[in-house]
Design a protein that fits this description.
heterotrimer; A mainly alpha; B alpha+beta; C mainly alpha; A: 8 helices; about 75% helix; about 0% strand; elongated; B: alpha+beta; five-stranded mixed beta barrel; about 35% strand
Chain lengths: ~160, ~140, ~160
């Protein structure tokens, strides 16, 4: 069975059908996916803004990262769970959707970006001089993160218009 | 310190009162407006191009965010044309006391659908009204009209 | 002249026509609306969490409020302009929608609450106020703003 065929099968399972046909369950899942954005992406945006020296500048970067990332750990599981459930209900349709593919690739790149940041910059954050701000590499990660999250949101919204 | 603050606070109250007044005005306008929806244009459907077709309901795709219905229509020459129509979400119908079972009961029977036709002139449209086999008329207005 | 006919006379303006009739006009505007609400609600969340004493306790309440203020205002500008654009492009679709009316009513309440009440609460670091009052204010703020969000989502599902 090809991946596409598996996606089509998934979309027509009783579980997927129950969600997509439900009066209230689908709107609840979709609404939660959108409204968990502030608790997930919103927190990352705050962190990126600090790294770029645009907000919360009088506090050490390491402290800001720690505070906001804590809350994003509640938001991202919600995004992931609701995202997977939504995908299951339309797996076959999403398979060929260009915007969805770009969204997935962007999420993957964001994951890689996070790991790179974790390995290269996170351990040394306490040593950054507040006055001069984060090193150029960290700022690049932050800027890259912001751009990709914008892409994820745009693709997420636009994919519905390509079905 | 205190005398310098007092005038500032008075200004804030004034501008806040104006904001309050404006917001209450918007609030009130929305509550009392009795407007009826008129047609509007979207990228996919032409709300001025209304088509009504009658035929046999063959498929009901009852899903979020849009429902889809396939109707086989006998064209003039005897050939059978397949028309697809898009409806609002299941919850929209539920609020109007219409469920999936009502549509499925009409499968294999004659239905009449009035749609706003797709701009590409294909046999596809956005449902305005759907007359079920038992004669019950379901309207997708004002949402889709 | 009903309100709707006045609005409809404006909807022939080029930007509105573009949003309405182009393939990606609407999703583009909606994307801005989503980006705006992400930042707007994040700033509200941060303040309310601190006010309720549930999080961000490493920072002063008034400092947090001052830091997020430009972002709250900027994000709100994005949300309101994208919202207005969508509304004025197809007023007929929204003005009769019950969730839309509820959304605007909640928005008015949220704005009144935010600039009338919350601002007073977040302007002082350690007020001599019982914790319960802070929690209630924070909960009301979150309920109103997220209520606007949920009502907005309901537009697509409820007439």
């Amino acid at each position: 069975m090809s991946l596409f065929e598996w996606c089509q099968w998934l979309q027509h399972t009783r579980f997927a059908t129950a969600i997509s046909e439900s009066d209230w369950l689908f709107p609840l899942i979709e609404g939660s996916h959108i409204l968990a954005l502030p608790l997930s992406v919103g927190m990352i945006v705050m962190v990126d803004l600090r790294l770029l020296g645009l907000a919360f500048c009088s506090e050490p970067a390491g402290k800001i990262v720690h505070s906001f990332l804590r809350w994003s750990k509640i938001g991202f599981p919600i995004m992931f769970l609701t995202g997977v459930l939504l995908l299951i209900t339309q797996a076959g349709k999403a398979y060929g959707n260009t915007f969805f593919r770009v969204k997935l690739i962007s999420l993957l790149l964001l994951g890689i970006n996070a790991v790179v940041y974790q390995k290269l910059f996170f351990p040394r954050m306490a040593q950054w001089d507040s006055a001069s701000g984060a090193p150029a590499g960290a700022k690049f990660c932050a800027g890259f993160s912001l751009l990709l999250w914008i892409g994820v949101i745009v693709c997420g919204r636009t994919m519905a218009y390509q079905f | 310190m205190l005398p310098a603050r007092a005038p500032l606070r008075r200004n804030l109250v004034t501008s806040r009162t104006r904001l309050l007044g404006f917001l209450l005005l918007v609030f009130a306008t929305l509550l009392v407006s009795q407007a009826k929806a008129h047609h509007n244009m979207t990228a996919v459907f032409d709300f001025n191009d209304r088509v009504t077709f009658t035929g046999t309901l063959t498929a009901v795709d009852w899903r979020n965010p849009h429902t889809y219905f396939t109707v086989e229509v006998k064209a003039a020459g005897g050939a059978v044309e397949s028309w697809q129509s898009e409806g609002p979400a299941p919850s929209f119908f539920r609020i109007r006391d219409v469920g999936k079972a009502d549509f499925e009961a009409s499968v294999g029977k004659t239905v009449t659908v009035e749609v706003s036709r797709a701009r590409d002139k294909s046999r596809f449209g956005l449902i305005r009204t759907f007359t079920l086999a038992d004669g019950k008329i379901v309207s997708a207005c004002p949402q889709n009209c | 002249m009903s309100l709707l006919s006045i609005l409809q006379s404006w909807s022939g303006w080029a930007p509105f026509v573009f949003v309405r009739d182009s393939k990606y006009g609407m999703p583009a505007v909606q994307s801005f609306h989503l980006m705006g609400l992400t930042v707007l609600l994040a700033t509200v969340l941060v303040q309310d969490l601190r006010l309720a004493g549930l999080g961000m306790k490493e920072y002063g309440l008034s400092w947090l409020a001052r830091q997020v203020k430009p972002w709250t205002l900027g994000a709100f500008a994005v949300v309101i302009s994208s919202g207005l654009l969508m509304f004025l492009a197809t007023p007929g679709k929204y003005i009769d929608s019950h969730p839309f009316r509820l959304k605007i009513a909640l928005l008015c309440l949220a704005l009144l609450f935010h600039f009338g009440v919350l601002r007073r609460f977040t302007s002082v670091d350690s007020p001599a106020r019982p914790r319960a009052v802070n929690v209630i204010v924070a909960c009301l703020s979150l309920t109103l703003w997220f209520g606007v969000g949920w009502a907005g989502r309901a537009i697509a599902f409820i007439p």
